[in-house]
Structure formats: structure tokens, C-alpha cells
Amino acid sequence: MDEAESLNKAIHEEVTLSPYDASWPALFTQERDRLLTLFPGEFLAIEHIGSTAVPGLLAKPIIDIMTGVDSMARADKLMEPLCQAKYATSMEFNASLTDRRWLMRWADGRRTHHLHLMLYGSQEWERRLAFRNLLCADTRLAQAYEANKQLWATEFRSDREAYTAAKSDFIGKALKSTV
Question: Is pLDDT larger for residue 92 or for residue 151?
Fold first, then answer.
């Protein structure tokens, strides 16, 4: 399988969930350190987000990384260097985003990391951290989220966008209930 075939396979892979893997935090740390070495001074913060950041939670085995930048112009300037550093992206998809930029790393035809470049301290930055922290602190909420994710992964196995939309609704409700 060549690089183009592998990337295409990663983009179109089905939604599959895996039991929590204790190596996920170390995989985040390894990639965070690699990014800090390759791009010194470019990021105001780098956070492990998503389900792989919540101990014990079932997840798609993709490490979600949120990097804080001081402007979207800086995020845009980092896109090409990040692609040279083993990330890939869809420029068409990123053109539809106003508050972040998205890239992925992949190996053997599957996604391994998602990288979200976001304005540090923005409402969306704080929202993503708040949900991660809420799941880490509230076992019942984490269990409810996991049960729903299993249902959505079955229902939307071949539709990543619908799966993500279903999660977004749950996240919004969970965050509103804590306000």
C-alpha cells in the first residue's frame, strides 16, 4: 500500500471503538514532545483531549491533541510545516472551519492522531477542556457517554460525521447541566 492509498483508507475508515489502552497517555506525551521539539515556541499549550484522555473510557484509538496558538493566522502558517512533519489534512475541510484547523497522522491505513490547532483560551478551547475534565471527574457521566458512543458507533459505523454530530449533542447537554 502506497502513501496515497494508506491516507485514503484512513480518511474512509469505519467508526470502531476500543477498550481503554493504558498506553494512550504515553502516546500523547510522545507526540506532544515531538511537536515541541519540531516547533519550539509555536504553541501556547498542548492538551490531550477526547476519549483517549479519560482513564477507563472506551474510545476510537486515535489520540486527540489540542494545540493552542495565538491566532488563526499562526495556525494557517503551521499547516504546511506540520504536513512535512508527518501530518496530513484536507485543505477543503479546513476551509470550512473558522475556529480551528485539523490534521491527522496515520500509519498502516489507520488514523493514529488528530491534531486540532485552536486559539488558546477561546470559548471552544475552554469547552473541550471542560468536557474532558468533567468526564474525568464524573464516573456516571463517563459511563453514560460510553454507552451512547457504543450505540452511535453501531448506528453510524460508516458515517463519521453523523457519529461526531451525535457526540456533539451529548457534550452540549452535559456542559449545560454543569453551568
Answer: 151
For residue 62, give the C-alpha cell: 486515535
What mean pLDDT do residues 108-112 have?
Answer: 82
Residue carrying the nine cell digits 484536507 = 90
Q: Give the pLDDT mean for 167-172.
A: 93
- Give per-residue pLDDT as tens, 42-68: 999 999 999 999 999 999 999 999 999
Residues 71-82 as b/e (b if ≥16 CB within 10 A, e otherwise) read: ebeebeebbeeb
